[in-house]
Amino acid sequence: MIGLKLTGEGYIWYKQERVGYKNKRFLIWKFATMLKDSPNMAGGIMTTKKDPRITPMGGFLRKSKINELPQLINIFKGDMSVVGPRPVMPKSFDAYPPEIQEVIYNVKPGLTGIGSIIFRDEESLITTVKEKGEDPWEFYKNVIYPFKGKVELWYQANESFCTDIKIIFTTAWVILNSDSDVVYKWFKGLPKRPF
Predict the structure, then answer these.
(1) CA-to-CA distance for 180 and 182, rounded, in angstroms?
(2) How far from 87 is each of 7, 134, 179, CA to CA, in Å?
């Protein structure tokens, strides 16, 4: 926390509105890893590899997922669960197909989830899309969000204590082994990535 205070803009905590259980909004807690006004700067709500809005400590915290630990506060408050679909910003929620919006948060959003594992390289995907000269937001709307929705529906259909334990261990594994594709070996019937 001292590192966060001494680097970037000097603040430690970050709260942001997200969509949660039964599509109700709540404030999510994180360690501050980006400049305060990042959503209103170039890039908007999307983050790319080596994004200049990421603070000096932020890169490490994001890669290690330590920036997510303050969400334990959200879990204790009852806003979130340990495992579930990641809570998204309202603008991102609006990009989900309507049939996904209706059901995705029939379970509490999670600190980690199957979508977090599959999309651990999301910043790299968006960077590649931008480098090709394509519109990242269109890629999100037309490719990422429909696929994320399918993945989260898979989770709801397969939700169990055993599945949640496997997701927790897989999350730890892919943080330490970022190139691992173990998710498709350990979880049968997952929708395949369309990209």
Answers:
(1) 5
(2) 27, 26, 24
Encoded tokens for 91: 């603008």
Distance CA 180, CA 43 (A): 28
pLDDT of 54: 78
Q: Is residue 97 part of a domain?
A: yes
> What values do phi and psi take at 31, rounded to 5?
-75, 145
Please give the angle made by the CA atoms of 193, 87 and 50, to the nearest 5 degrees: 65
Q: Are 149 and 104 in contact (CB under 8 A)?
A: yes
Helix, strand, coil % over all residues of the chain, rounded to 5: 50, 10, 40
Q: Is 39 exposed, middle or buried (0-12, 13-18, 19+ CB in 10 A)?
A: middle
Q: What parts of the chain have a pLDDT lower than 70?
A: 1-11, 35-46, 48
Specify the pLDDT at position 178.
81
Give the chain's domain count: 1
Range of the domain at 155: 2-186
End-to-end C-alpha distance for the chain, whole angstroms: 37
User: So what's the pLDDT on residue 7?
Assistant: 59
Give a yes or no: residue 194 inside a domain: no
Q: Cα 168 vs. chain centroid, distance in angstroms?
A: 15
pLDDT for the residue 41: 59
Reported as type and span, the H/E element at residue 14 is strand 13-19
- 193 within domain boundaries: no
